[in-house]
Amino acid sequence: MHGRLVFVAVQSAQLLRPATTVRCRLTANIASKAAAKTCPADLASVAAKTCPEDLEAYERQLLQWREDLLKCGMDFQSLREILQAVQQSDLQRFFEQLPKGVDNHVHLLGMGKRSYLMRRLAAQDYDGAFPAFWNPQTGMILVAKHASAGYVPLPDPASSEFQTLLEFLTMQSKQDDSSGLDPVSHAWEEFEKCFDRIEQPFFFEPFFRAVVLPHIIDDLRYHRDYGVELRMNPCDKLWSFPSDRDASGQKLLELLKDVDDFHIVVILTFNKANNEANRKNNWEKARSFLNLHRLFPDMVRAFDFVGCEDKGVQLKELKDIILYMRRMSKFELKLALHAGETSWNDDTVTPTTTNSKYALQQLEPGPDRLAHVCTVNRDFKVLDLLMRRAPEVPVEICITSNLILKYCPLLNHHVTILESSQHPFVLGA
Q: Name one GO molecular function term (predicted).
């Protein structure tokens, strides 16, 4: 393997198969023999074929571009010229040839091109298809033999109504000039609406098998990913379809397992909603999740808690279920924890910040991986705890969701803090 190109296996590999790598980066100080210890042989051979002879020249070019960008400040014309030079360079083409690794922090329902999936639903051109309907008032989509009240057939893809349908499936987080970034609760509500609108047809087994899953995998392969970590809730029976048409639970994981030459890991998700019904449901999920882990030990690798952080159950109240999942799986199920997903205000006493501190200070053992941790931008104590108590626990940075939900301002994103602190992190989708 040439020069200083290495595939860095950060600690998130704990959730994956041994020696699986998640990102590649150029570094001026790590020898190729170090890469050989962490880089699977097939990836090393790919890198060797695509790696240019003179990596030092590329590294010098990267450093020069970095200096140029820093000098530009807010001069957007200069920034544009530099970015155009990067896009047209041999280095850009070199990066495009490399395997990108594993896409982390991906929510299954958030994947796929909206227009493509809706066109296929409307066309009913897959085996076992049912008619598809939508509610023009709510944007909810339904696959069924007959339309329910308020539902009409999906619009023609060439119509303006079709564009309206796509807008319903797009995150519509609005800014209020008087209060700055969206409050967490509003952004989370909009986020949930988008998921709810597509969820029922998404998991209709014939559609998921014939359209959704191939579309997702083809898109990942096109971007040269060789694996994906999917966060999802595949428990019990979700819909009123006959059992052969319900792609939930065990059947869903069987479909994922059948994908050839592509590595899929599942992170099971509990909900943090603060009500008695959800708490009871989470314990039912726990038993179901443990059974799925026994059935698919190489694929079901971790668990997490999702939901609006500043409204949901405090993390300390979830300690029993965390301990139960770990012990009953003999600590094979890892805790890949959402921690500090928001930085929309400076209040260091919010549940978001409190939960981040609790995860780092009180959980024993601590989390195996942390997602977001935007709170390092709100409270210096979080960064201090991260550095002292979890120096080898990587943080998943999910810039896309941070910006779409407007949980993190771009000019003050916490990735810069983690980079300067040298704490390990991985960029997710």
A: adenosine deaminase activity
